[in-house]
Amino acid sequence: MKLTTIGIDLAKNVFQVHGVDERGKAVLKKPLKRDQMAAFFANLTPCLIGMEACGSAHFWANKLQAMGHTVKLMAPQFVKPYVKTNKNDAADAEAICEAVSRPNMRFVPIKHGEQQAVLALHRARQGFVKARTAQANQIRGLLAEYGIIIPQGIAHISKRLPEILEDGENGLPGIFRHLIARLGDHIKELDRQAQELEVQIQAWHRENAASKKLAQIPGIGPITASALVASIGNARNFENGRQLAAWLGLVPRQNSSGGKQTLLGISKRGDTYLRTLLIHGARAVIRVAERKAEHARSWLAGVMGRRNKNVAAVALANKNARIVWALLAQDRDYKADYGLVA
Hints:
- The chain has helices at residues 34-42, 57-66, 76-79, 89-100, 113-144, 154-166, 174-207, 209-214, 222-232, 241-247, 272-289, 299-306, 309-329; strands at 5-9, 14-20, 26-33, 48-52, 70-74, 252-254, 263-266.
- By secondary structure, the protein is an alpha/beta fold.
- The strands form two sheets. The protein has a five-stranded mixed β-sheet.
- Helix 5 crosses helix 9 and helix 11 (272-289) crosses helix 13.
- Residues 212-291 form the Transposase IS116/IS110/IS902 C-terminal domain.
């Protein structure tokens, strides 16, 4: 039995394995428990292994690559068309095995441990920020039931809450005052946790040359730069800057047919978090650029003259994504006047 290609349907405890030989004939169909996986693949001749990019996929990809195998990860939506029958673990493993052998299949770059750790910091910080926003909205809504209105913004919560709690004439019951004080302490704790994680992210950013390089681009700061470096990994996995922008969902969707090109809004594919950071950074650049005299003849001013600010922000985020690819893939430093003719 000479295995050349294997598809693994990942799970928590029981993994389904499907293997074929050089002629494409199925020669292996078996389930493996988690504690059997390492020993089974350590005794196999190095071969091509395909998996869906899902939970624990990067861990197993790194582990199997260390054993000499070639591992490729695929987005689940690209594997689904190869499922021939009803969904079950065996059919999924067979579909993965078939999909990984396709010459035009798109693969997901494998992340190493440090990339995963930095992205974990980002995800945890994002969770604290969302929880902080939700808690602020709850406080604002509860106080509104007693006729006390707090303007939008986290800063207004921390500023107004002590005054509201100390005001004995606003009609708030004692039990409600204790509740609001508790919720106020909770929002302070969430804010502290988010700030501590941000400090860790910035410390990693200062030690990473690629991240510091990206932070030179207007609209990209330490948070965005570190998230991009950790998510992209090797930028040469993308052929050009447009592929990176498409991977981030910053290019138009198409509904073209019969030779007629129909472009819609942006596709919003890929990582929502990265796309949001880039667009928010672009909005900050637009706010600053409007107050500068040299902005009048810039590329950004031309876009803003034709379209509204939201479209201009997405266009600038798209441009920044392409610059990110150029800096990482070609090992360049950012130059604000690059390509300009004196």
